[in-house]
Structure prediction request, 290 residues.
Amino acid sequence: MSSYKTKAIILKSYNLGEADKILKLFSNENGLVDAVAKGARKIKSKFGGRLEVFNFLELELSKGRNLDVICQAELIKNFCRIPEDFNTFLFSQHICEIVLKTHFSCTDITPMIFRLLYSCLSEFNCVIGGNLHNLQKITVFFIAKFLKITGYPPLMHACCICGKDINAGFYKTGFPTFSINHNENISDVKKQLSFKDDIYKGSFYFSIRLGGFFCGECEPGIQNIPDLKKNISLETVIFLGFLFNAKFKIYMNAAINDRLLKGVFKTLEDYLKYHYDLNLNTGTYIKSIV
Prediction:
């Protein structure tokens, strides 16, 4: 059997027989890999405790017909604090389930997805006390960047119905420093965001099914189809633009209120599930705690 070496993160594991383990791996070079570790559950196994979920390993594997066989495993990094808290473990499982159920084999975008997964797991590992706000914040970033990398980001610069440029003034470098409240003059906000007066009509509309924003001129044509339309706030428009363009460190340092974060989390979660036709088991539990 031919063998190969790769670096991979363990996404999931199953018991096989009395002593073996089946592992679902995501590799920087090979994408999703199904492998078996023979004798991994024995007390004197050569693998020790290295084959635990979320561990980042350097592996030597032999090609098999259905499952590759793990010959050697060296631990590069373990995210030991993730399993200590249920909420942190749940959100970490959630992003791993997204990767698993989208069935990505080796493609040009595999290294980018791997780096995204590794970065988010590293950040989960640093969350203190299972802070739900920070866990949601990391997950929202993961979903947004995952959609962008895989080619399914929502259309935000143009109307998804007529194609007209709506120029929503999205920020590429940082979250806006000014605050938005109900008493603020909307014309002043529009100047700061470069909104086009002939398009903006006082409300913003987003459709999960249609795949993005649509303009005020197209809104009357679908006003009797409520499942297509979602009214969103100006604050959400700004945040979405920032989210899809910001780097991780800048994003994590931005102050985002709970109400805004929860709304965007639900919208992007529904968007992801609709366009990938996913049924996420962890999503059911997350809904009960956020």
